[in-house]
From TrEMBL:
It is found in: Gas vesicle. Keywords: Gas vesicle. Its main location: other. Belongs to the gas vesicle GvpF/GvpL family. Pfam families: GvpL_GvpF (PF06386). It comes from Salinigranum rubrum. This is Protein gvpF. One of its GO terms (biological process) is gas vesicle organization. One of its GO terms (cellular component) is gas vesicle.
Amino acid sequence: MSKVYVYGVTDAAPFTASLDGVEDATEVRTVEHDPLAAVVSDVEEREPPRTDENVQAHDEVLRSVMTGGDGRTVVPMQFGMVFEGEGPLRNVLRSGRPTFTRSLNEVDGTFEFGVKVVAPDDGGVPPAVTESVSEELASASVAEADGDQFSDRLVLNRSYLVERAEREAFDDAIDRVRERHDSLTVRYTGPYAPYNFVDIHIGAER
């Protein structure tokens, strides 16, 4: 019997779409418990392997839900969330309704973007430059979350929460950083579901 793989939670407007999901799923649908809906596909395994293909499929499904049509706000689940069936999943939607609803409201109409700014090999970056880059990007976003400083050359490693309507303004801010600090390498990725701006923990009801 197929199990249910969950990508994220959105509002309870049902849909079915032909998308490439985790473990070669070809259809993504919703499981509803008003006013919420879980974005799901069917899988056979309780613990799908964390391959590059599966992780990419997880992210791409969420991106498609967020950007398709008029776009939908999504509270993302971490990779690997599987339920034995729709019943246990609906129980979690019911019991977690206040938390899911609050999180949907907090990230309503937003995308997450990742920004890494890397200094050249030949020296450090003055603190004033780091401050300038930070201020430029903060001005076009509504929240930010620091990532790991895994290299001495990292000037900045952050995730930014950006309103859908302000995406172009954030793109422009990235361009200004590149123009003003052309010795720096700016790695700009997204949009992603707002992983770093929600805090959802699912219990053992799966």
